[in-house]
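Regression test case RT-17, inverse folding.

Input:
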């Protein structure tokens, strides 16, 4: 079970992380492995070539019940939920009245109820938000439930040895399957840009399933460090860094999540601002950057125009092992957001040439069936 020790929460796989010599760190109040003995670079490359197992139990699993959960949730998010089929899942976000992003999340139509997967950092605020708008009796939070992610091009091959039906699951679909004799709720999704599955389990069965998957020759454990470098190469946002309550859906380049119906009908916080920015354009936009050289440009670094004027800020940056060079994302004034625009980024006070590109930095390989 998830317990609080020394002010940090532990996931159901804590003992397994220790057994595997994971280097434990504080992440959003959870004690999680940043890496194992192989190191971040090896874990990253293994995920791209074979399959890695990640503990993502810090993500909150919230079940929404009651009458018509789709319409109830649609009052809080810009995503189209009414037309989301049973067993399917959708990426969307909670917005505020200024179209800022309170959290980004995955929502799954499970038929009888709906599963909302929230980030660890804003989980307390998210739960209060849901309870205030939907009613506390409709919101069931399951903090002890485990969530593991099997990611990489070999993920489906490996999981099919335990649950053959997984191979036929479309991208962004879900099913209840048996894995190593354990009932699991399985979603074909992930945060690495690779094919893969996220597997929700009762806390007392998580370690057995994780060990069974790790016993397969293609699978190795991976920590938060590789998860971050993988998601950055895939151009995926990290809440609290690339997304926050002061950043709108349009600025973040997430308008693809807002269907034609939701654009026309609105009905969620900030809808009018989203509509105006779609029509007129925002003052700034999220972009990818490829800095020159080998040194990564980190979060918080200023982005400068060729004349030295500040035009934006890096929100995520690091070394891309697949790219074999530094990659970054950030926000710039809209006139500088076009692909190919030459800018500069401050690296320890020194300007470094960089070029605006459209993420992802590495082509994603989600399963398309």
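Golden output:
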């Amino acid at each position: 079970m998830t317990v609080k020790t020394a002010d940090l929460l532990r996931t159901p796989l804590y003992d397994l992380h220790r057994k595997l010599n994971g280097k434990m760190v504080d992440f959003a109040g959870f004690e999680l492995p940043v890496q194992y003995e192989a190191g971040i670079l090896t874990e990253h490359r293994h995920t791209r070539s074979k399959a890695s197992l990640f503990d993502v139990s810090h993500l909150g699993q919230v079940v929404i019940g009651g009458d018509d959960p789709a319409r109830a949730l649609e009052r809080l998010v810009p995503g189209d939920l009414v037309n989301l089929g049973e067993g399917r899942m959708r990426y969307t976000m909670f917005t505020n009245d200024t179209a800022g992003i309170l959290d980004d999340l995955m929502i799954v139509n499970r038929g009888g109820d709906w599963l909302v997967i929230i980030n660890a950092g804003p989980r307390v605020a998210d739960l209060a938000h849901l309870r205030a708008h939907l009613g506390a009796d409709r919101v069931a939070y399951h903090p002890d439930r485990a969530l593991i992610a099997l990611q990489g091009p070999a993920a489906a091959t490996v999981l099919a040895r335990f649950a053959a039906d997984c191979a036929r699951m479309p991208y962004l679909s879900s099913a209840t399957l048996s894995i190593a004799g354990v009932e699991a709720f399985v979603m074909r999704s992930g945060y690495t840009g690779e094919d893969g599955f996220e597997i929700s389990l009762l806390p007392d069965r998580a370690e057995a399933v994780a060990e069974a998957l790790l016993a397969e020759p293609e699978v190795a454990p991976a920590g938060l460090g590789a998860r971050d470098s993988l998601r950055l190469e895939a151009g995926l946002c990290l809440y609290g860094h690339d997304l926050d309550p002061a950043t709108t859906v349009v600025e973040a380049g997430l308008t693809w999540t807002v269907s034609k119906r939701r654009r026309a009908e609105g009905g969620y916080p900030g809808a009018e601002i989203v509509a105006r920015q779609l029509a007129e354009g925002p003052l700034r936009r999220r972009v990818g950057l490829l800095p020159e050289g080998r040194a990564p440009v980190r979060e918080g670094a200023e982005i400068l125009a060729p004349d030295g004027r500040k035009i934006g800020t890096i929100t995520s940056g690091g070394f891309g092992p697949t790219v074999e060079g530094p990659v970054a994302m950030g926000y710039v004034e809209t006139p500088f957001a076009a692909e190919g625009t030459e800018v500069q980024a401050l690296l320890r006070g020194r300007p470094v040439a960089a070029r605006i590109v459209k993420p992802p930095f590495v082509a994603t390989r989600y399963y398309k069936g």
